[in-house]
Amino acid sequence: MNSWINLDALWKIVVVGLLTGAGLPALFALGLRLLNPPGPVAPPGPSGPTGEPATYRPTAGPVGYALAVLSFAVVLASIGWGISVIVGHS
Amino acid sequence: MTGNDAVLALMVITALGFDFTNGFHDTGNAMATSIVTGALPPRVAVAVSAVLNLVGAFLSTAVAATIANGLVSSGAVTLTVVCAGLTGSILWNLTTWYLGIPSSSSHALIGGVIGATVAAAGTSAVKWQGLVSKVIVPAALSPFIAGGVAVVGTLLVRRITREVSERPREHGFRLGQIGSASMVSLAHGTNDAQKTMGVITLALIANGNLAAGAQAPDWVILSCALAIALGTYAGGWRVIRALGKGLVEIAPAQGMAAESASAAVILCSTDFGYSLSTTHVATGSILGSGVGWKGAEVRWQLARRMVTAWLFTLPAAALVGALAYWTANGIGGTAGVVVVFVVLVLASVAFFVASRYPAVTPENVNAEWTGSVAPAPVVAKDGAVS
Predict the structure, then answer these.
(1) Is B185's pLDDT higher than 70?
(2) What residues of B are in contact with residue A82 (Cβ under 8 Å)?
(3) Number of structural domains, chain B?
(4) Cβ A38 vs Cβ B164: under 8 Å
(5) Binning pLDDT at 50, 70 and 90, where does residue B209 land?
(6) Nearby residues of B259 by Cβ (< 8 Å), 6 or more positions away
(7) Has residue B380 been placed in a domain?
(8) What is the pLDDT of residues A56-90, one digit of tens each?
(9) DSSP label at A20?
(10) Of residues B202, B264, B7, the one with CA closest to residue A86
(11) From the candidates B55, B135, B149, B197, which should be mutated to test the interface with A, based on the most A CB atoms within 10 A?
(12) Which of chain A's residues have a Cβ under 8 Å away from the Cβ of B261?
């Protein structure tokens, strides 16, 4: 570390920034995907009464649901932990 | 009330006035992307942001300490210097707000105070090393760090939810955006509200009301927190529009990635006492979310214009701060400070009036981007122009 640029703080900001700033949204996205597992967008079959093609949306099974809840919980817990670290330092 | 008390009162009013402009100039940093994607209605967004700024202001005071003790030697600072510096900061902030440029309120503040200090006591009164290591270097690096984090976040989020159908995906990310935008508002409170606290503390130390190296007193923390929250609630619709509609057309997933990157970088830096510009971080993140999203249109020309304004912010605010100091000092005493204050108030009113024609409001903030901050007038069916 020199006195004009604090490299020690810099790499910490980059690493923690990537883990929380990109990692948590990714985890959130994972939860979203677990809740909405991919399925055929427009399944074969007759269209609905309105003329719109009926969309079939598979729902998450119990395991997927539990994992999704877990991902969202980890996101929330990380935010809470981050805030408590900052409050603890000041 | 002696002349000195009057100047002290004017200084506090000017500082809180700056904090107010800081709030409405920067609402867009947190809320622009949530407003344009429809995650939150405009008025709800600014209200949420205001409350969280208020909370954030109480969470950490590391940055206030940097400003109060790390940038200029308090021996050179007088109340007149601080008043003049703040005048420079406010005028530059209002100019860039009028033009719809999300420039850094922090740099305006630091530039103004440094300009006035140099005008009063010469260049030796500035702690250049503190300025470079705690302000200039973070300012140069933070947009790239935030932009990089946002690119990674956007790529991951897009990749992971590629197979999720449109409706639940948009809905989910809008909900996520409410959380991420709230975090940016909180981060803004922990970083930006601190700066005005730092300046008031600096002036109180210089005036002998506080001992050197003192922390910000409670009434300073409270009044600054309230000023920035009120400013945030007023909503800088011009800047919100430029950031949210001008730079990139943003989808909810991008908005959430951009906001998460901003919040993470600002909060980390706050923890180290870096007074970085939330504006630079937010702009870097929004650009990053555009770069990471295949097919998104990024308006680099507008980004270049913003970066140019960033480069000018420190020197321009410093110049106005110095001019204000020379004016106040030339007239001398309390009268000098009062004259500068009156000029500042008149100029602020003029900017406000000019911004009404045409105004950017919660109702038209999301209008199609036509190349300018002020939206094209809407022609109703009966031909009336609203």
Answers:
(1) yes
(2) 267
(3) 1
(4) yes
(5) confident
(6) B30, B33, B34, B177, B180, B181, B183, B184, B285
(7) no
(8) 556 778 888 899 899 999 999 999 998 888 788 75
(9) I
(10) B264
(11) B149
(12) 17, 21-22
Domain membership of residue B376 (yes or no) is no
Percent of chain B residues topping a pLDDT of 90: 9
Structure tokens at B362: 């919660």
Nearest CA-CA distance, residue B103 and chain A, Å: 23
The maximal CA–CA distance of chain A, rounded, in angstroms, is: 72
When CB atoms are compared, the residue of B148, B168, B270 closest to A86 is B270
pLDDT at B41 over 50: yes
Which ipTM did the prediction report?
0.78
Distance CA B165, CA B116 (A): 57
| Cβ of residue A13 closer than 8 Å to a chain B Cβ | yes
| pLDDT: which is higher, B301 or A77 | A77
Tens of pLDDT, residue by residue over A18-44, are 999 999 999 999 998 888 887 655 444
Mean pLDDT across chain B, nearest whole number? 83
Q: Estimate the crossing angle of helix B137-160 against helix A7-18, to 10 degrees.
A: 20
Peptide linkage before B358 cis (omega within 30 of 0): yes
Handedness of CA B277, B278, B280, B284 (dihedral sign): positive
| Phi, psi for residue B379 in degrees, rounded to 5 | -95, 115
- Which residue in B362, B283, B358 sits closest to B33, CA to CA? B283
Residues of B in contact with A32 (CB under 8 A): 160-161, 164, 168-169, 172-173, 176
Q: CA-nearest residue of chain A to B271?
A: A86
> Is B384 a domain residue?
no
CA separation for the pair A6, B135 (Å, rounded)? 12
**Best residue in A1, A2, A12, A24 to probe B by mutation, most B CBs within 10 Å?**
A24
Q: Find the CB nearest A18 among B62, B152, B169.
A: B152
Segment 39-58 of chain A within 8 Å of chain B by CB: 39, 41, 55, 57
**A87 at interface of B, judged by CB pairs closer than 8 A:** yes
Tell me, yes or no, whether B19 lies in a domain: yes
Residues spanned by the domain of B329: 3-355
